[in-house]
Amino acid sequence: MSTELELPFRPDTQLTEVMRLRVQSLQQRGLKRQDGERLLQPNEAVYRLDFSKQSLRFSHWTVRLAQTGRLTITATSQLWTPDLTHLMTRQLLEPAGAFWRAPGDACDAPVKCYEADAHEFGERIAELAKVRKVMYFLFAFAEGCSPESVDCSITFTVDS
Asked: Nearest 5°: CA angle at 20, between 151 and 91?
């Protein structure tokens, strides 16, 4: 028998702030980032998923955008330990999940996405859940999208 498990993406405000301070520190000192380092952009924030179960199969995304805009979600690899190292570009996973609401879309219209990429992305997250309790993501907000206008979760099937 299998059951569904919906996991909400939660903002990691502390980690986002640490990464913003890194950018600010480099700017104030007139220094450059490390070779290959991925700095947090002003329109990005760090989110996390906490896995309560490890044996998961991807089912579907639930993304709600309260207004027009674009949300891009990029996962980080299990090799990134935010308390020890800076984020490097090689630690970002592909494909990213791109979700958007276009101007003129009805309020109750489903959010659009590149379905094949979103499905592959969900499957990759399910694979990584087998070896991780927590996973970090970069949420990039664009074209009118903001953290306040986004509600996002991912649903898995749990095999018992």
From this structure: 75
Does 1 score more than 80 pLDDT?
Answer: no
pTM for the model stands at 0.94
Q: Using DSSP, state whether 13 is helix, strand or coil.
A: helix
Contact yes or no for 7/158 (Cβ under 8 A): no
- Rounded distance, CA 9 to CA 146, Å? 14
Percent share of the chain, pLDDT over 90: 82
- Adjacency order of strands within the sheet including 150-159: 2-8, 150-159, 56-65
- For 73-89, the pLDDT digits (tens) are 999 987 778 877 889 99
Give start and end residues of each alpha helix (H) in 2-159: 13-29, 115-129
Short-list 12, 153, 144, CA closest to 66? 144
Round to whole Å and give the CA distance between 150 and 137: 14
Q: What pLDDT, on the 0 to 100 scale, is given for residue 159?
A: 78
Q: What is the DSSP letter of 16?
A: H
Read off the tokens for 72. 């891009």
Cα 19 to the center of its chain, rounded Å: 15
